[in-house]
Amino acid sequence: MIKRLLCIGAGYVGGPTMAVIAQHCPDVEVVVADINHDRVAAWQSGRPPIFEPGLEEVVRRSLGRNLRFTGDVEHEIGEAEMIFVSVNTPTKTFGQGAGRAADLQYWEKTARSILHHARRPVIVVEKSTLPVRTAEAMERIFKNRRQGQRFEVLSNPEFLAEGTAITDLESPDRVLIGGAETPAGQAAIDELVDIYARWVPRERILTANVWSAELSKLAANAFLAQRVSSINAISAICEQTGADILSVATAIGTDRRIGSQFLRAGVGFGGSCFQKDILNLVYLCEQHGLPEVARYWEAVVTLNQHQKERFVRRMIRVMFNTLAGKRIALFGFAFKANTGDTRESPAIQICQELLAEQAHVCITDPQALEGARQVFSASTDRVAFESDPYKAADGAHAVALLTDWAEYRALDYRRIYAAMERPAFLFDGRNQLDPEELYQIGFNVYAIGRPDRTSL
Ligand code: NAD
Ligand code: UGA
After folding, report:
1. Shortest-distance Cα residue to atom 12 of ligand 1
2. What residues form DSSP beta bridges with 125?
3. Which of 238, 273, 351, 362 is catalytic?
4. pLDDT band at 143 (very low <50, low <70, confident <90, very high)
């Protein structure tokens, strides 16, 4: 049985995943190491550097018992029996494959560091989302091992979603473990199965070969993102024809073969992974001589881009073809509710396009204001940041709701309307509000994939 486990990378995946493992395996020492010392200090103080419902409680339960965070990656590698690699794998921005392929520099540095500092047989677990056959590359790096060193590489992709990370980890639909089809590979798989089996029913722990596990992760994200782009494509037709996307989504989703989840039309998907992983898949297809398959998946990203542009175009059109000098309040900047994460948030592109139209933008968000500041504060004086949504909307010509925070459903829109310029516009980019109620208050209401309600 594994007694000492290390995770390299204390981010959105590494931190929560290890906190949950530590909680369920009190007899296993769980160490999370990261080169970002501020992040390490925040975790170690019991106040996680990321906002995630329920996370702080889970971390505090094990901190100081069998969970700790450290900046000393190299030393911890020497002590570990199992090492999860959960470093970031962003899209490459330079050289060959720029804009598509995964940037594997952080991952490769980690592999080399493991090779240099491991002092005992180690099971290395890929937790980061990686292109298919990365584990093979890792194994090749490990071929240069010194005497006494032994490495077995597993793929254990993570399927948690931000905002629900703790419930996803506590009760996953499945845990997927890929390993080599050899006795040593099987033994390593068994070690990892034993850890998850402490709280995950055995029938939900799936095993596969390494490549199948790696590809399944990319494919799962591609399928999820594809559903969002599909419903968003239909929302565009709704806006042109007077059909209502909520009725259409309900009609589609009640077919059990299709299912009702992930059919919420909106301003497009964001987050650090959907776009990155699809582009990764596209690159993989191109590398393997499958251009038609590559174009098929690429269209999911193209449509997502189009959805954001379409949203701003509609704003410009209905606001008399000019936004110059107008004040627009953005309700929400995080890429989805219940997270402070702004990576690839649709709000970023929408805000940029509004600024290009010379609008004045006031951003509000319960958790992501700091993230918004990092993106925009230096670039222009036409962006303001305000934690109170009522103040953000004060004197505004329009409110654009961009994140599905529950807080925005509970606001007093009469009060908001009273403080806005006339005519007052409300663009519901997440279909969170009742358009009829808002229309009765006096707003001109434009919701995604729903008929316009223009009162002027
Ligand atoms: P993140 O950027 O939040 O965290 C990565 C961490 O790795 C950072 O804190 C960084 O400092 C650290 N790091 C980088 N190089 C290092 C090194 N050499 N040594 C030690 N630490 C190092 O990223 P994330 O969102 O946690 O994602 C990590 C991986 O998990 C990615 O591959 C991502 O695709 C995948 N994933 C993410 C999610 C999600 O919801 N965010 C879900 C499933 C899978
Ligand atoms: C997603 C997947 O759901 C996770 O399974 C996966 O592990 C993770 O990516 C990853 O690999 O990083 P996440 O991006 O955290 O999780 O959040 P989602 O709930 O999937 O939402 C992604 C985006 O799609 C958000 O911007 C969300 O607002 C949008 N979305 C989602 C819609 O617009 N409509 C929907 O019906 C669902």
Report:
1. 9
2. 84, 154
3. 273
4. confident
DSSP state letters, 17-66: HHHHHHHH-TTSEEEEE-S-HHHHHHHHTTS-SS--TTHHHHHHHHBTTT
Provide the residue type at 170 as one letter.
Answer: E
Amino acid identity of 391?
K
Per-residue pLDDT tens digits for 316-366: 999 999 999 999 999 999 999 999 999 999 999 999 999 999 999 999 999
Rounded to two decimals, the pTM is 0.97
Token match 């959805």: residue?
307
pLDDT tens profile 361-375? 999 999 999 999 999
**Ligand 2 center–CA 161 separation, angstroms:** 6
Measuring CA to CA, how many Å separate 454 from each of 338, 401, 438, 443?
31, 17, 11, 8
Q: For residue 335, what are its two tokens?
A: 């890429």
Instruction: Enumerate domains of the chain plus CATH numbers.
Output: 4-200 (3.40.50.720), 241-456 (3.40.50.720)
Closest-CA residue, ligand 1 atom 6, reads 9
Q: Where are the beta strands (DSSP E) in 127-246?
A: 151-155, 175-179, 205-209
Q: How far is CA 317 from the centre of its chain?
A: 31
Give the helix/strand (H/E) hosting 221: helix 210-241
Chain-centroid distance, C-alpha 332: 16
